[in-house]
Amino acid sequence: MRIVVKYMFCLLLLFAKTVVAQDIHFTQFYAVPMYLNPAFAGMEKCSKLSFASRNQWSGVNKGYNTYLFSYDDCLPKINSGLGIVAATDVAGTGNLKTNLVNVNYSYEALITRKMSWRFGMQAGYVQKSINYNNLLFGDQIARGGNVPSLDNAVSSRSFLDLSAGSVFYTDMLWVGVSVNHLNKPNEAISTVYAELPMKTSVHSGLRIKLNDPPRKAETKYLIPCFNYMHQNKFNQASFGLYYDPGALNFGLWYRGIPFINKPKQGYSTNDAVNLLISFSNDKFHFGYSYDITISRLTPLSGGAHEVVAYYKICRKKKKRNTRLAPCPKF
User: Fold this and answer.
1) For residue range 308-319, what is the model confidence (pLDDT) as tens digits?
2) Across the chain, where does the E strand assignment appear?
3) In the chain, count of helices (H) and strands (E)?
């Protein structure tokens, strides 16, 4: 049965006239916050080096493999933050590759003593490429395996990608909005124009204190949060809950839109349940997550494995007038 499902999946890709790609995404998106929202650049008082690796659909030959590196720093004298993100994503037998470099800038304003607002901008350079020699097309099958006709194909495309975002937060609450692909660039790997539609993300959460421990004991928190994304005709929502008792943290997420199994687009909105665990101290963080697929791809996908790590470089004499956001460590 598994072999049959694999062949059906390959045939769908083989005869599809239009291939709709997805943006790079992470389950532990709060551990790579600048990719979620440019307003998060420099939000912490320390410089931070981050790394993320994601292996999606390991049960499929040549699934998605994503790697991300980032660095950001706070500039307290001008209430600003700077950051840079570099990522690469490779998918499928044709090695459909996306390479990107994003530069982020954020500015923070204190609304009151307990409330802050940040605005961020992002400019990115994106290159997409594909290896047609690794693919088999319908006209090749019709002619017995000859070279396919690729009159409208190009092997790569580069473009400028602009994004913006903002975050409002207190010591216990945060609400953020980001808009990606503001300039709607042409991402087509062909001579046919294919506009990359804008993507809007709304994300929020609340840190709930569970105890009042003695001075040297750890404070325990429960952190419910969500992230909703809309792009063109497609919608996706993630609902999560973290338990933070100290160094070792646990999380549970559901990615999908409940009670909506057959949207007009024909795609299931119930995607995955995500299990997360992490260890962190004042300077270092390591997190692992596993996505349990609950859509119709369950027999084939193999889920997704994701590892995130970051290291903070703190300066003892560096002062900061702004508060830290209460976002979870994941």
Assistant:
1) 999 998 876 544
2) 47-56, 64-75, 80-91, 96-110, 116-129, 156-169, 173-180, 199-206, 208-209, 221-231, 234-244, 248-255, 272-280, 284-293, 304-313
3) 4, 15
